[in-house]
Amino acid sequence: MPEAAVLQVEDLVVEFPRGRERVLAADGVSLDVQRGEIVGLIGESGCGKSVTALALFRLVPEPGRIVRGTVRLAGVELLGLSERELRRHRGAGIAYVPQEPGEALNPVVRIGSQIVDVMRAHRDVDRRAAWREAVALLRRVGIADPERRARQYAHQFSGGMKQRALIAMALAARPKVLVADEPTTALDPTIQAGILELLATLAREESLGVLLITHDLGVVASICDRVLVMYAGRIVERAAVDELFADPGHPYTRALLAAVPRPGLRRGALPAIPGAVPDLAALPPGCAFHPRCPVAIDACRQVEPAPVELAPGRSVRCLLATPSAPGGDARR
Ligand SMILES: Nc1ncnc2c1ncn2[C@@H]1O[C@H](COP(=O)(O)OP(=O)(O)O)[C@@H](O)[C@H]1O
Ligand SMILES: [Mg+2]
Questions:
Q1: Which amino acid residue places its CA nearest to atom 1 of ligand 1?
Q2: What is the CATH architecture of 7-102+173-274?
Q3: For a substitution probing ligand 1, which of 16, 99, 214 has the most ligand atoms within 8 Å of its CB?
Q4: What is the mean pLDDT of residues 21-47?
């Protein structure tokens, strides 16, 4: 059995006002990440993955707000901390690699110095040693000629290099948990493979816990240990990666796995499943997936399914899911 989770999120609810309505971008999200484990968070665009990730850092953009929930990092509850206390944990405890490099890199500070600043904000290390370590980190994330590159500025880096620099920055504080939001989406396949390999190595060798947001099932299959499937703000399935691919329990997961990328889009593109992603401001009653579900029954239009535990660590929010018989397949 795994030891206590390094990251433990319970019943996280995040809302955005929309006209007179409010939209629940995360609606009772619970998840955990163990040391050394890579957990994938998947689901179509707009289902609440990025909002969930930002909420862990209390960085939900205005006018969004966290309504309730707990986020425990190695036992410390983050959502109740003062801004100052929280800053200590951001970075050193839990670090974030955003979906887009955007403004995450400072345009007027050398890349190496930005990494050094992160290190020195969280660790007692002198500038010279920190610079050497920054160069080593850049090399580690696959940046060629890191001594020279460390002295350069963001505009001298390609998109892929910026993304790798951000990962180096995130790792500089030696976090226990890394939350990476589609960190390789913009990268070409070779670089993408290198970054995924690096994450896997850090998980294995340095017990880094990783929450990896992606819509790429190939990425999930290649490095995740467990998978959470999100739909309309909720986790609708959780499973070990082999189980998910061998025997997807939720009709939405099955649709995701069956979805063939649309012609003309490159490999790893968003899967296209029939029907539209629901508008969170106008969710249908019952199961949010029922209008797109090929196996929905009448009850699915009325009853909101609760998670059904199929086996330890394996649950599905579907009225049609049946728990395994006691003493049957369950491995308790
Ligand atoms: N800045 C925002 N303002 C208003 N609503 C937002 C904002 N960001 C996200 N949302 C709402 O939250 C939902 C989930 O967004 P997001 O977490 O970015 O989806 P994902 O990362 O899964 O593609 C969106 O569909 C939208 O309804
Ligand atoms: Mg997103």
A1: 61
A2: 3-Layer(aba) Sandwich (3.40)
A3: 16
A4: 95
